[in-house]
Amino acid sequence: MENDSTVKKGAVIFLMAIILCGHALAQRAVEVSLRFSRQETAVRVVFESDEDTIRKAFFTANPASVRIDFPTRVELKMQNDFPFELVRRDKAVVMNLRDVTDVRAYRLTAPSRIVIDIKTSVKTQKEPLKPEQKPGQPQAIQPGQKPLQPPVAQQPAAAAPKGPPGQKPQEPSPAKAAEQPLTADKGKKVKIVMIDAGHGGYDSGIVGGDAKEKDVNLSLAKDLYTVLVKKGYTVYMTRKVDQPSSLTERINFAGSKNQEVFISIHASSSERFAVYTATGDEQGADAVKLYSTVSRQNRHLARSRNLAKVLANSLRADFGSDVAQRELPLPILSTMNATAVMIDYPSVRAYASDVKLREKFISSVMKGIAGHEQ
Amino acid sequence: MSSKKVLITIASLVLVLTAMAGGYLLLQRYRPLEKPAVTEGPGESLSPEPEDISSFRIYYPVDNTLQVIEKRVRRRSKQAAAAEALMEEFFKGPGGGLSSAVPPNVKVLGVYRDAAQILYVDLSDELRRNFQGDALAEYLVLKGIYESLMANLQEVQDVKVLVEGKEMESMGGHFYLKFPLRGIVSSEVRAEEKGSRE
Q: What is the ipTM of this complex?
């Protein structure tokens, strides 16, 4: 009887061991080779593995990051000197990108691979051009797909403002100063601020009667610029004239400077102020974790929240109205390597016509910045 | 005697499990690997399916949040046709006197699905031209599109919005539109009003 019981126990343990071993075998790491090739302003990254792994992999790409979720754990065999930061999490691989103007990802066969073409705004080439494919293998471009072309280097808005063709760019006088970092009074630490006037060009933003958000944003940005420069700050602007400026261009321009504070100015579609910061790491969804993982904003988030709070308090006190403080995964904030906030002011129409209202707004923002520094 | 029976049972069980695992792996290896890139074309999706009424749970941006409203539409058997009907309902707005950030007069030009189960929603340029809203409104419109499709359709991994058949960088200048939506809209809006959390 006792013997039977021992055998039964042994059998149960044996079965569990088999199941666990089976599970472990099923979860064994699959080898994925990671190689890359550089062109002048482009990098091609190739993940190659067996058909099943590549076919079931799920990937998302944007100028801040590329994430690949493999169906199983993977063991990466990497080429040396990989040009981007790589984060590995269980079955996922995340590439954090910088100075990227465009990114395209393709799933290709024979051999099975995921090809990621990354165009950058800065030169990446350190070595003579090498094709990504192994000798004798077909090139990693789908039929009909354009071959990898070096992109046109992005012209930062503040470095080379452009107007419509044939029209001379309107150069505001304070903007010239933005190119020359200013030194403040002796002994005072120079603060570097970047102001982003939202929208521009064909993108008018919110329209209220004759007033367009892009114009009011620019006007407020210039006013803030002038006050900050007078106070001894070094100030950059993502745009200084009415010109189209994509999110990617703004992000890349901001990435090329060393601002400590980034302020994006937009209009609210409600009748009250709103101050935004990037979404933090605390939220649970996978996609948000991805976004946060790659977010250069993470290490600045506490300071960004503090600035948002101080700005909200200042606006609340000066205008006597509600101020919403929100966190959203805004790319312009999430990718910023600095304290970063977005301020939405209410009523485009009122701010377009009322100079005193604009002055009051700028004064309130300045109080917020001063309060944040303390 | 009894312990022998147990051992035989275990051995049989292990054999059966091994055979099943082997069979599964064999099937995995030899099943067709490539699916057609687009499973349901626009021609198919546009033809109305005969049948009765079904209901969609649609997520509308209303008052700085997403509000779920159930709408009844003719049932479609094909998923792309259902997705198209769903998007048409979404762009009609919530109705009932509710104001929404959903841009008006947007036409659904087509809905397609690729082998990776990403749903491509092709919309008219009114999406961009008629959108009048701030960052929160834009976020909620994109999240509304994503959540509505994910809640009513099966096996969809992600959603990508095209405008007039092309990728656009952004709808309203605050969020990317040229990348699939899941990575953008999968967070809850955290807000603080008058110093207290909402």
A: 0.72
